Amino acid sequence: MWPYAAHLSRLGARVTVVDLPGYGRTVRVRRGRRSVSYGDWQQVLVDLVGREHDERPLVVVGASMGGALAVDTAAVTGLAKRVIATCLLDPTRPGIAAAIVRAPWIARLGLPLLRFARGPAANLRIPVRLLTPMSAISNDPDLSHAVLTDRRGGGGAMPVGWYRSFLEAGPAVPPEQYQGPPVVLLHPVEDRWTTPELSLDYLGRLHGKTRVVMLPGCGHFPLEEPGFQVLLDEVSDEMEQVLDDQRKGS
Given a cut of 60, is residue 191 above it in pLDDT? Predict the structure, then answer.
């Protein structure tokens, strides 16, 4: 996420990038603790926003599965002024889980078995690349290779219990009951992992103001041009709008 943080900071924002348990340097949890869950990820972000909140307007940005987490954070805390996401997924929806795994047989055979992962079995770590099409993270082979070989990123592993909790959790607040700030979807046009239709299904269920902008030439990890500049321009415009609303007291 460093490229995003660097560019967004140049727009005048203070950018905080969160290490969620299992990624970055936050890999291990205390011995004897239950398996890390998707709910832990949701709670980490809620706690962080509550602790960091001050008079500055908050824009929550989420890439990939972070998009749904950004919506969750805004919905639960009520503190964000805008949500910007490159992808929105609800794995509890029919067909979504099958669309985001590496091969069809994983959805038919492997995913149903996850519900039996309880107790010590939930702590068994499985490489992310074995279940998901990580090679489709980018349309640039070199970038995909860098992600796949990064042990703190796409080359890492997560506990079985985390996968189960992710597939079972769904949105923290049902999209139809969402009362949070406007949501802007900046979706890569050439995403070979999560097609735009998957995110548009989620966005179409969201109650409230939404907007869609497609990022031309971009894969799932949208760093290619011209889409990357479109992303930066759209984020800049949303930040200006948020600041303008604050000045007006709205």
Answer: yes
Across the strands, what pairs with 187? Answer: 214
* Beta carbons of 85 and 183 less than 8 angstroms apart: yes
Q: Is the pLDDT of residue 115 over 90?
A: no
Is the pTM of the predicted complex or chain greater than 0.70? Answer: yes
DSSP 43-60: HHHHHHHHHH--SS-EEE
Task: Give the CA distances from residue 6 to residues 14, 55, 217, in Å, rounded to whole numbers and listed in that order.
Answer: 10, 23, 21
Q: Residue 61 forms beta bridges with which residues?
A: 84
Dihedral of CA 61/62/67/72: which sign? negative
Phi, psi at 105, each rounded to 5°:
-65, -25
Compute the distance between CA of residue 210 and CA of residue 58 in angstroms, rounded to an integer: 17
Host H or E run for residue 240? helix 227-248
157-159 and 183-188 beta bridge pairing: unpaired
Closest CA to 3 of 134, 190, 198, 138: 138
Q: What are phi and psi of 80, to 5 degrees?
A: -85, 150
CA nearest 70: which of 78, 61, 58? 61
- Give the number of other Cβ atoms within 10 Å of residue 173's Cβ: 17
Percent of the chain with pLDDT over 70: 90
